[in-house]
Design brief:
Elements: E1 2-5, H1 11-22, H2 33-44, E2 49-56, E3 59-70, E4 75-84, H3 93-107, E5 110-114, H4 122-130
Parallel strand pairs: 4-5
Antiparallel strand pairs: 1-2, 2-3, 3-4
Helix pairs in contact: 1-2
Bound molecules: coenzyme A.
Length: 146
């Protein structure tokens, strides 16, 4: 398994992995190849885009993507999407991707990584806690259906 920068050439394989990872329990999302491709393309086109892909035998088995954001006192990375192919989960690929992400972001003087995770599924939160992420008690996410 090797970890490389996630670029548009990896898109097709990454979309397959992403749909397989999220269109099953616990998320049970309903991503199509079209919507997942658009999601990744939007992120590629974001200012500060940065992403990593884990590759095994030319297949994208893990993908993470997001953007570096400037704040008044530091640079933060918003980890927008993160998935490991179900056939490759629980083999530490996700943890290795997070580790590599941290290493590469530090070189870009990024000081913090943040992400959103659903509370109804305990699994992602447990996974992130194992990787030293904490629930931020100073921030709340507000939303309104319109
Ligand atoms: C979350 C995810 C990226 C983790 O990647 P991974 O390569 O499987 O994770 P790792 O092998 O490095 O870590 C495994 C640990 O995470 C937890 N974990 C990972 N997948 C799990 C699963 N399907 N069910 C329960 N626990 C799981 C385990 O507690 C495990 O801990 P252990 O090593 O002590 O047994 C991957 O499971 C995934 O893509 N899930 C679906 C999409 C998703 O939830 N993305 C994140 C949303 S914010």
């Amino acid at each position: 398994m090797k970890i490389v920068n996630f670029t548009k050439k990896h898109l097709k394989s990454a979309v397959e992995t992403y749909c397989k990872a999220f269109n099953r329990p616990p998320q049970n999302d309903n991503w199509s190849k079209k919507t997942a491709t658009k999601r990744f393309e939007d992120l590629f086109n974001s200012a500060g885009y940065f992403g990593l892909a884990a590759i095994e035998n030319n297949q994208i088995v893990g993908v993470m993507t997001g953007r570096i954001e400037q704040w008044y006192d530091k640079k933060e990375y918003y980890l927008a999407e993160f998935a490991v192919h179900p056939d490759f989960q629980n083999k530490k690929i996700g943890s290795k991707l997070l580790e590599e992400l941290e290493k590469r972001l530090k070189k870009k003087t990024v000081q913090q990584i943040y992400l959103l995770a659903t509370v109804k599924d305990k699994m992602p939160t447990a996974f992130y806690k194992k990787n030293d992420y904490n629930i931020d008690k100073t921030i709340v996410v507000l939303s309104k259906s319109i």
